[in-house]
Amino acid sequence: MQNNGFEVKDLFIHQFYKSFLILVKLIADSGATKAEWCLLNNGKKKTVFTQGISPYFLNQQQITEILKKELLPQIKNRKIEEGY
Known about the structure:
The chain is an alpha+beta fold and 84 residues long. The protein is 32% helix and 42% strand. The chain has two helices and six strands, in the order ββαβββαβ. The chain has helices at residues 8-18, 60-75, and strands at residues 2-3, 6-7, 22-30, 34-41, 44-51, 78-83. The strands form two sheets. The chain has a four-stranded mixed beta sheet, with helices on one face. Strands 1-2 form a two-stranded antiparallel sheet. The chain starts with a strand and ends with a strand.
């Protein structure tokens, strides 16, 4: 059965996996020494911190490593809908 290009089973699978994720908006405020990350989900706010991210001092690979090592472990099963 089709539903706007998606099959019903695909919609069910999507909803099933979506139930394990928490969809959030991620807002970053970063300087050279520290970064504050605010995760917003249904009016709830969680703040996490990482070392600073400045493209003036860090290249793309270094920024990616900071995000992988410091940010991702703190946001665990959350899926970012929007980032600012």
